[in-house]
Write a structure and sequence with these properties.
With 446 residues, the protein is α/β, with parallel strands linked by helices. It has three domains: 5-57, 3-methyladenine DNA Glycosylase II, Chain A, domain 3 (Orthogonal Bundle); 64-313, TIM Barrel, CATH 3.20.20; 326-444, 3-Layer(aba) Sandwich (Rossmann fold). The protein has 16 helices and 17 strands. Helix 5 (140-153) links the parallel strand 6 and strand 7 (157-161). Helix 7 crosses helix 8 (211-224), helix 10 (275-287) packs parallel to helix 11 (300-313) and helix 14 packs across helix 15 (417-423). The termini are far apart.
């Protein structure tokens, strides 16, 4: 259970040294309790207190790191049932299955096509992260060979799927450097799988026939020293699978049950007869509460909407997505190209920049910091006023890049035109269209 600020304060050195960045140890304790500070910021906390505080401040669902390289990621680490309570932290990871009897040439083709599934959205690169290599014939050599091929020739990280400890051990020797997830420890093989995970410092999935069945396995593995666990309650019927996901999250968060305080892995590929239905089931697990979602295949028409859903759900609802304030070149603008200004709300920027690109008219786009608010909201909140916009234009450096003195402002901010003119004497302030969709036509007609 999380400690209160006063309980944390009792474990601190009480020196009020200010080296943590706040004036008193009590203030630092309150920041720790609310998640606004890190324990490492205190240079004088004792080892004993550090151990107590680290354990008490650990999230109720353990974060588990999977993979190495550019697609390394964490799953778990969540602290709330609903994102509006605070936020969700580590997004659902997507995996596609490759079976161990697949020819190497076919695997290489799949990896190439799956790697192409990358989409730019609000400045982020959206893509699946994992390949689940599934043992289907007990051929350990073929399994280890494909694991090595995937690990060495692709950016994808691995889930090694077999209940045969010998086969898993062979694959770990060839692909363990990529920190794969081992799937799955069961009542029949828990000792052998636990040893492999412990010896190689790898995350381990645990599978049982029910949520209750997981507890004895996780308690045993934690007792062995294996802490990076991922849970599979074994349910493959959609209604039961959803109930299990909710039950695990609720038990960890509300009841403080550490035995189920781990992220989960789900298998829409085993719950549907076609890829479209898999996508529907997967969308349910992205919302509630799959840490990893395994699909039979990765296709654009299915994975793209799932990646967008994931982006929306795992965006912090208390912190708008923003872009950096400054000058952005759209196309190859020159000293005669138009100059436009808008807010730093990420969606506004990408819509506006996209419409400018579509117009084929090179332009300078000035992005003013509005604390992540859209144009109309920023204007209403006093974050996009005429004086501020005019001062920003002066300081931005755009006057050194263009010879003309015309600034295009958003149509929804037409009311600031007069104030901008006062701040920028000699400039012509042109009011652009209200809707970004009309921006391309507006620029072409000038």
């Amino acid at each position: 259970m999380a400690l209160t600020g006063i309980q944390i304060f009792k474990l601190l050195p009480k020196t009020n040294c200010k080296e943590c960045g706040v004036p008193t140890c009590l203030a630092f304790a309150m920041n720790l309790a609310s998640g606004k500070a890190e324990l490492d910021a205190c240079p004088y906390v004792s080892d004993d207190a550090r151990a107590q505080l680290a354990e008490a401040s650990a999230p109720p669902i353990r974060p588990v790191a999977i993979g190495k390289g550019v697609r390394a990621a964490k799953t778990g680490g969540e602290t709330v049932m609903y994102r509006h309570e605070k936020t969700f932290f580590n997004q659902t990871l997507f995996a596609g299955i490759i079976t161990s009897d697949t020819a190497e040439a076919v695997v290489e083709g799949k990896l190439k096509s799956w790697n192409a599934l990358q989409y730019e959205r609000v400045g982020l690169n959206l893509r699946p992260e994992l390949v689940a290599l599934k043992d289907v014939n007990g051929d350990g050599v073929a399994f280890a060979t494909l694991a090595k091929l995937i690990a060495e020739t692709s950016e994808f990280n691995l889930i090694l799927m077999s209940e045969n400890a010998g086969i898993i051990e062979g694959a770990v020797k060839t692909a363990g450097f990529k920190r794969p997830l081992i799937y799955a420890a069961t009542a029949a093989n828990v000792d052998a799988f636990g040893k492999i995970a412990l010896d190689n410092n790898l995350p381990l999935a645990v599978k049982a026939d029910s949520v209750d069945g997981l507890i004895a396995l996780t308690d045993k593995l934690v007792g062995m020293g294996v802490k990076d666990l991922v849970l599979d309650p074994g349910s493959r019927e959609i209604k039961q699978a959803l109930e299990d996901q909710v039950a695990i999250r609720r038990a960890a968060l509300k009841a403080g049950n550490r035995s189920v305080g781990f992220p989960t892995i789900t298998f829409p590929c085993e719950m549907a007869s076609n890829i479209a239905m898999e996508g529907l089931v997967a969308s349910m697990f992205v919302a509630k509460y799959g840490g990893i979602v395994v699909m039979s295949d990765l296709t654009t028409e299915v994975i793209f909407p799932l990646l967008l859903e994931r982006l929306n759900i795992f965006t912090d609802p208390q912190r708008p997505m923003t872009v950096t304030e400054g000058i952005f070149e759209i196309g190859t603008p020159n000293e005669n190209s138009p100059v436009l200004v808008t807010t730093n709300f990420a969606l506004t920027y990408f819509i506006v920049s996209g419409e400018i690109e579509a117009s084929k008219v090179p332009a300078w786009l000035l992005i003013k910091d509005s604390e992540g608010l859209s144009v109309l909201t920023a204007w209403a909140a006093g974050k996009f006023g005429g004086d501020d916009v005019g001062l920003f234009v002066k300081k931005s450096g755009i006057m050194d890049k263009v010879k003309h003195t015309e600034l295009i402002i958003p149509g929804y901010a037409a009311a600031i035109a007069g104030d901008v003119e006062e701040e920028l004497p000699g400039w012509t302030i042109t009011v652009g269209p209200r809707e970004a969709a009309h921006l391309a036509g507006f620029l072409k007609s000038r």
